[in-house]
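Problem 12. The chain below contains 623 residues. Write out its predicted structure in token notation.
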Amino acid sequence: MIDYLWVLIVLPLLGAAALIVFGKRIGDPWSGRLASALVGTAFLIAAGFTVPLVTGNGHPETVELFSWIPVLGVEVSLLWDPLAALMTLIVTGVGFLIHVYAVGYMHGDERFGRFFGYMNLFIASMLTLVLASNFVVMFVGWELVGLSSYLLISFWFVRPAASAAGKKAFIVNRIGDWGFLVALLLIFAAFGTFEFAAVFAEAPTGLTTGMATAITLLLFLGAVGKSAQIPLYVWLPDAMEGPTPVSALIHAATMVTAGIYMIARTAVLFGLAPATLTVVATVGAATALFAATLAMGQRDIKRVLAYSTISQLGYMVMAVGVTAFTAGMFHLMTHAFFKALLFLGAGAVIHAVAGEQDMSRMGGLRKVMPITFWTMVVAWLAIAGVAPLSGFWSKDEILAAAFAHGGYFVFLWAIGVVAALLTAFYMTRLMILTFGGEERWPDGVEASEAPPILTVPLVILAVLSATAGIFNTPFRLGLEHFLEPSFEGVTQQLPPAGATVVALAALALVVALVGIFWGWARYSRRLPVEEGGFWGAAVEGYRVDDWYGRLVVAPGKAMATWAAEILDGRIIDGVVNGVGGGVKSFGNSLSGTQSGLVRWYGAVMAAGTLGLLLWLLLSGGLF
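Solution.
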């Protein structure tokens, strides 16, 4: 049955084609139901394919479909192994819940059918990326994910902010994609193939440290763009201009996880480049802390969660940087559950308060939205790292691996601990401002609990957020054993054993509780004034966009203006127009010879003949 692996991609792809073309005719709600059913079916098929891998009766397989670029030896083929299975289940499982939620959330939108067409395209694009068996097919999925995100972030394009956010995401990601593309050229130059199996088999003996460093740094540049790390994180907060289900899909199951998955998939190459791994771990730790400080000062509930995602992605990047690839994928999985829950819960809150997103104008929602509140409590405690919820196990495994790595990486562990403290604080702040205290809703709003189509996905995600940690604990390394075939030949950094790991876990739990107490003490009694100083700088993102505007955008526009007006308008067009004008002037000067008089033509012909004979005589051509 594995020969039908392509069905996983084709199902949402057919849905995308049908709904983009006929979505308006299919209408609301059937467009959403069709899109949801296709993604749900893909999840069930993927689960069936995963069973043999779980039971030990299966093994990694490559499914060859057809030859695409014979001159380069590129075939369209898919890879099914534990790593691909894990990602596929996350993409289709969480994606299905988000689709179901979106049926209710997007009800009444005039472009309802097209929205779900784009959502299905997003799922198909991500599945192409994670199921690819070579770098070229992966790059196709990589680019399609970028296209899908652009279409969905700017879905409400009549809003200038949404249109600008879509373009910003697209352009910023082109920088990272350039790195990925150049890395592909180096890979082909070094190995003569793009196939994962051939490249990974030959790399340990056939790749120099310098070439491995160049390739992996360029691949990491691609990951920095897709997974929103410093300095290319700036597109993700603005992506909140898209509908909330889009935010949940981007942050939990699709686009931002692509960079982490790509590094894990190419772990063999990264393991050959120690310098790159240090860069990766440093960028991840710095991003985790930097984004956490920004999340502390946001008033928009979705922007808090956006910066939170950037911070949590920093933990995953730090994990792969210290060669704890399984830990990184473990946190990717648990984060998918609680971050999808947080975004969908935020969407329910925004829906209840008539579109308001400023947390200072919410409050008191705990009483009128009990299901949303209690499910988000689970997500809050999970992301804060409170035991025994899922985030405690996955985030602490990353921190413990960084500590065990020793040396410089202990400093990165300390940064991760501080970021964990801030995470517990800003998530406590979000919960109290949104659900606690007095009602601060806009006049005329009667907030109430979301309908079942919105709350049922919240409940399912809450259960997963609470229990997913059992898949990989120090007492039962289930996920680590499951992923072993995908990381064969890769040396991974494991957490320390014995009393050390217990002490680190206890410290992390204390840090989480201190952060929660800090947030509770600051916000539970009154709403403090958060203006000026740090709070003003944080809500403006430390004006990083302004610096980009001055240092990158303005010089770029000036260069483009000079190229358009001077280089193209005067120099290039001047040369072309000058040549044309010269030819035209020469033609005009000869036009006088066309008098129409036969005697004039005869005289010219006689003169020409006489001149030719004279030339032949002088040159000796007649004798």
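Discussion. The chain has a mean pLDDT of 93. Students who got a different answer should revisit the alignment rule from Section 12.3.
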